[in-house]
């Protein structure tokens, strides 16, 4: 049971450090890494040689830990310690390099997400966000964006302020 707790906590810390993107299988090599995580974790949890009882105890402990941390996540103060925040990757067609580096996202991931959304150009993207689940959300250019839905997104406040300032500085016709 102690090994299960240790592996669970280590996994949570690693996901926090490396980002939720580590859990979303993008390529074959990503899938191999996820399978290896499971194999290594299973070996540590079940012991050597693994027994049915050790497996049942390990799985039960993992489920209890997940239920416990799921409940703790509901409290706003705890969520920021457990989950990574959503991260603004693009705004108004502009890629935010600092944020894609923070989120461990590549330019290829950005291009892939744009294509998956059925878009043909980066300028067709109003907002692109890496969600805490590791999925990428896209709001198309021309769609109205309520700033409230971006309130918890890392980098959104600065992007919205810069956009507002740019709009104020545009010369008006008259």
From TrEMBL:
Localization in the cell: Cell membrane
Pfam family, one: DUF421
Protein name: Membrane protein
Family membership noted in the UniProt record: Belongs to the UPF0702 family.
Start and end residues of each YetF C-terminal domain: 79-143
Keywords: Cell membrane, Membrane, Transmembrane, Transmembrane helix
GO-annotated cellular components: plasma membrane
Membrane-topology annotation of the record: Multi-pass membrane protein
Cell membrane recorded as keyword: yes
TM spans (from-to): 6-24, 52-72
Organism: Corynebacterium phocae
């Amino acid at each position: 049971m102690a090994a299960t707790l240790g592996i669970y906590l280590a996994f949570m810390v690693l996901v926090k450090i490396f980002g939720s993107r580590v859990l979303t299988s993008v390529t074959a090599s990503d899938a191999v890494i996820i399978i290896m995580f499971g194999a290594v974790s299973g070996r540590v949890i079940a012991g050597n040689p693994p027994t049915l009882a050790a497996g049942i105890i390990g799985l039960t402990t993992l489920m209890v830990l997940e239920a416990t941390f799921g409940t703790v996540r509901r409290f706003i103060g705890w969520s920021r310690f457990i989950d990574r925040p959503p991260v603004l990757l693009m705004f108004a067609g502009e890629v935010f390099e600092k944020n894609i580096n923070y989120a461990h996202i590549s330019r290829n991931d950005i291009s892939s997400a744009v294509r998956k959304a059925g878009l043909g150009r980066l300028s067709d993207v109003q907002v692109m966000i890496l969600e805490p689940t590791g999925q990428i959300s896209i709001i198309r250019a021309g769609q109205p964006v309520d700033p409230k839905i971006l309130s918890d997104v890392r980098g959104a406040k600065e992007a919205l302020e810069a956009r507002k300032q740019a709009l104020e500085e545009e010369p008006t016709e008259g």
